[in-house]
Amino acid sequence: MRLWLLLLSFFGILLLITLLNARINGGFKIESSWIAIALAPTIIWLLSSGQLAELSGFGVAFKLREAVARPFSLKIHGSKITPEVLSSDEKGSYDAIQNFIRNRIPAMTLQLGRKGYYYGPVIMEYLKQLTQHDFFRYVVFIDDAGKFSALVSARPFYEQLRANKVDIVNLIETNDLEPIKGLISSAISSDSNKREVLEKMAHKNLSELPVIDEDGYFIGIIDRDKLTSSIVLDLVAEKQ
């Protein structure tokens, strides 16, 4: 991110907050907490790129080191997700699609390396119907032990399978996910702190990151916007 964009963002946000306050309360003034909010994009970029531990200025001390050392909360900063597993009983059957819809299941699991287990047309029909609903968002790939291997956004995944006529069963059975675009194979442990999450997101250029438990099982998604917002709120709260 270029310096002029950071400066433009800072002054633009600060001006907007000042004008809104003047319209609501009358009079022009600038609070230190507003400066913290306006500096948020700059702070988060410097922080996630590993270039900043603490910033002081404008009479405000931003204790970023303490703020980002705190653990993240999947409930607050992301989404807990329990994917629905497609079992062998569903091969050749479409009955469980309604279960996904009825229970608003956000993801489904496909197990890699399993031969003679999945039926391509059924997987495609699941994706076709489920991606019409906003709540269904991900396809999670797991290994033979049930641990996280990769994740992909469901709708783009379905569209590329359909457009390119990809044999999804062959990819699953051969454990070859390289042809899939938008695949996320990186994950963050649930016991990581906020800084570790931001650094990994910056390194991988991701706005969302899969979360795994201590045993390597997928448990949800952490969202960069929610995480950075919480850091800014922590900084502002410290100045009140």
TrEMBL record:
Keywords for the protein's UniProt record, in alphabetical order: CBS domain, Membrane, Transmembrane, Transmembrane helix
Transmembrane segments: 32-48
Gene3D superfamilies tied to this protein: CBS-domain (3.10.580.10)
Originating organism: Methylomarinum roseum
Span of domain CBS: 179-238
Protein name: CBS domain-containing protein
Entry keyword annotation includes Transmembrane: yes
Family matches, as Pfam families: CBS (PF00571)
